[in-house]
Design goal:
Domain Type II/III secretion system secretin-like: 249-409
Domain BON: 129-179
GO cellular component, one term: type II protein secretion system complex
Shape: elongated
Strand content: over 45%
Pfam families: BON, Secretin, T2SS-T3SS_pil_N
Radius of gyration: 44 Å
Largest sheet: 7 strands, antiparallel
Domain Pilus formation protein N-terminal: 46-114
Length: 461
């Protein structure tokens, strides 16, 4: 004999099943990694966390007749029997799912949070960084990486893995701590050789006569030939007339060498800068009749950012620049001359072992200028035309070579470090006056102090 009320319960369950048919989705295998704990702040029920496309089985304490899903776009509930329901995550977000019995009483309340499934990310992190302690958690649509790794390279690998699986690097928050951040010392040699050659050869003529008050001259004022380097002149006068020939022969060679050997240290992943030179003022604007001044740097500059990789290798992003003030390209504003800069610059990214060297070469510059000046008409005469023209030749060659050597630096004791003034001592007045010395040859304190030898303690008689 059936208990009273059973037909009513059966009809209620059939009605619930009919209402849920349009929303029923084939259930996937239950995600055994989904955890639920605590109480919901809104409904006072359990908190269930699901991944998108994941399902969770809910065992109800009594027969369910009705289910309420607050936001079906985030999660869905499928009732397959009176005491068993399946929760399915659809989209990121939070919602409430409440179950009622036939009398309308609440029998179960669930606060469902649909987040990213962290299992693929965690499995990939464990495979790629087996020695790291990396934890990945979902916060809304983002992934937060916490824990510790041994090097910045491992931290970058963890971020790349998470960004690849999430689909956007900006949705990855890297809060990993690096256990041992190596320091990198970079030794740089910047050498520039500049060679200038100037050649001048020719004869300048000057003719002058008082008749008609005119003067026919060459390209050089003969009265100034004595002030011209390498010039030799002959002058012949008769009456008020003269003829003068200036032989100009000059060859000049100049050699300029620029050398800078900076040594910098920086923590792996951080940027370091170096400048040996100066700054010059440049007007950049006018405000209330006041000229604004901005200072531009010039000299030998260096910037680098090292990243220590595995196996002691170093990824090095380096930029070097050699600049000097130049009159070429200079401008004048309001009787103010603003010089230009002649710049040689190189930027590159290389990967080297600790102690390995890399050369940045090939920064060559070759400029030449040649001019022929002379008396019009006469300079084109065969053979004799060379007596009426002057040739100027200038050539400038510049070559810049940069050699970088990174080292993984370890701290040393103070006694192993040296200063440029170690052993320096000012001389006495006698040594300076009679011997011309600027420092003592034997400075005090150069000898290392010996240890105490002999018995230690009190002497009792």
């Amino acid at each position: 004999m059936k208990p009273a009320g059973m037909p009513s319960l059966t009809r209620s369950l059939a009605l619930v099943a009919l209402l849920l048919v349009p929303q029923m989705i084939p259930a996937t295998a239950a995600d055994r990694g989904v955890a639920y704990s605590g109480m919901s702040s809104n409904t006072g029920g359990r908190v269930v966390t699901l991944g998108i496309g994941k399902s969770y089985v809910v065992d109800l304490p009594s027969n369910a007749a009705e289910v309420l899903v607050a936001d079906p776009k985030i999660a869905n509930a499928v009732v397959r029997s009176a005491r068993k329901a399946y929760l399915i995550g659809i989209a990121l977000g939070e919602t409430d799912i409440i179950f009622f019995d036939a009398q309308g009483n609440q029998i179960e309340s669930l606060a469902v949070s649909v987040a990213r499934d962290m299992s693929p990310i965690r499995n990939n992190l464990l495979t790629s960084i087996p020695e790291g302690m990396v934890s990945a958690s979902a916060v809304g649509d983002s992934v937060v990486l916490t824990g510790s790794v041994k090097s910045p390279a491992e931290a970058a690998t963890a971020s790349a893995i998470a960004a690849n699986l999430v689909g956007a690097p900006e949705k990855v928050v890297n809060a990993l701590a690096i256990e041992n951040r190596d320091q990198v010392m970079l030794k740089v040699s910047v050498v520039e050789m500049k060679r200038d050659t100037t050649k001048q050869l020719g004869i300048n003529w000057e003719f002058s006569g008082v008749s008609g008050g005119t003067s026919v001259g060459g390209i050089l004022d003969p009265t100034d030939f004595a002030s011209v380097a390498g010039a030799f002149g002959i002058r012949h006068e008769w009456g008020g007339n003269f003829v003068e020939a200036t032989l100009e022969a000059l060859e000049e060679k100049a050699l300029l060498r620029t050398l800078a050997e900076p040594t910098l240290s920086a923590i792996s992943g951080e940027r370091a800068e170096f400048l040996a030179g100066g700054e010059f003022p440049v007007p950049v604007g006018r405000d209330d009749n006041q000229i604004s001044i901005e200072f531009k740097k010039f000299g030998v500059g260096l910037t680098f950012t090292p990243v220590v990789l595995s196996s002691g290798r170093i990824s090095l992003q380096i930029g070097t620049e050699v600049s000097e003030l130049s009159s070429e390209g200079a401008i004048e504003v309001n009787n103010l001359s603003i010089p230009a800069l002649s710049v040689r610059r190189a930027n590159t990214t290389v990967e080297l072992p600790s102690g390995g060297s890399y050369a940045i070469a090939g920064l060559l510059q070759d400029k030449s200028r040649q001019a022929i000046r002379g008396t019009p008409g006469l300079i084109n005469l065969p053979v004799l035309g060379s007596l009426f023209r002057s040739r100027d030749y200038q050539r400038g060659q510049t070559e810049l070579v940069v050699i970088v050597t990174p080292y993984i630096a370890k701290p040393n004791g103070r006694d192993k470090l040296a200063l440029p003034d170690d052993g320096f001592s000012n001389p006495s007045d006698t040594d300076t006056f009679f011997l011309g010395q600027l420092n003592n040859i034997y400075a005090p304190g150069l000898m290392r102090k010996g240890g105490y030898q002999g018995p230690i303690g009190y002497t009792v008689e």
